[in-house]
Amino acid sequence: MTFPEGFSGHGMKYAASKILAHQATRDFLGKNNPHYNLTTFHPTFVLGYSLIQKTPESIDGINGLFWKSLFSKKPMVPQGGWVHVLDIADAHVKSLEASTESGTEFLLSGPNLSWDDAVKFIKNIYPRLGCKLEPPFEKGWVVDVTKANQVLKLKWRSQETVIQDVINQQLAFLEEGSQL
Fold first, then answer.
1. Treating both helix axes as pointing N-terminal to C-terminal, what angle do 159-178 and 115-125 enclose, rounded to 10 degrees?
2. Can you give the pLDDT at residue 168?
3. E strand or H helix at 65, and its extent?
4. Confidence check: pLDDT of 2 > 90
5. What would the pLDDT profile of 144-179 be if each residue is shown by its tens digit?
6. C-beta separation of 91 from 152 below 8 A
7. How far is CA 23 from CA 18, 26, 101, in A?
8. Nearest partner of 61 among 71, 51, 47, 72, judged by Cα
9. How far apart are CA 5 and CA 35, in angstroms?
10. For residues 172 and 4, which has the higher predicted lDDT (pLDDT)?
């Protein structure tokens, strides 16, 4: 396949890699019938405190796109498709305790929050941040996490917690850097 250059092409390549990995997993299960249970997780955009980020400049991935979005007119991350990184970790642990068949798949996404509400929250909690996002915003995703709720009994962190964890970490790094 050929992909466009730039940001949109990178996003398409990433999405294609996820689709191909899913197909390869389904093929593997069908051909090999392993003696163990294989469970897959399909999270939406994973945000939250990063254990690998060491400087304000090293913010990357979805956290980086979220942060850059705050200083743009339009967001780079769709609304309604965010999940806290610790909720993903919880899902992994709880899947070990759950009784599931091999090949079980879980969609993982936190409670829906519109960009309208996110921007109001950000501007209220972080007024000096200088968030430039302004409506109207494109409609977001609706993700059905019923199976994850029923089987894994997850307690999703709020979208406000997701937002605060990304912003607070970045602000702490920026504050550290200004003291040097």
1. 40
2. 98
3. helix 61-69
4. no
5. 999 999 999 999 999 999 999 999 999 999 998 755
6. yes
7. 9, 5, 18
8. 47
9. 43
10. 172
- Residue burial 148-167, b: 16+ Cβ < 10 Å; e: rest: beebbebebbebebbbbbbb
The residue assigned the tokens 């980020």 is 53
Tell me, rounded to whole angstroms, the distance of Cα 2 from its chain centroid. 26
Tens digit of each residue's pLDDT (9 = 90 or more) over 88-144:
999 999 999 999 999 999 999 999 889 999 999 999 999 999 999 999 998 888 899
Residue 81: closest CA among 138, 143, 137, 19: 143
What structural domains does the chain harbor? 1-35 (no CATH), 37-178 (3.40.50.720)
Both structure tokens of 36:
């163990």
Please state whether the predicted TM-score (pTM) of the whole model is above 0.85.
yes
Sign of CA dihedral 70, 74, 76, 80: positive
Evaluate whether 107 touches 144 at the Cβ level (below 8 Å).
Answer: yes
Tokens of 28: 């593997």
As beta bridge partners, residue 46 has 83
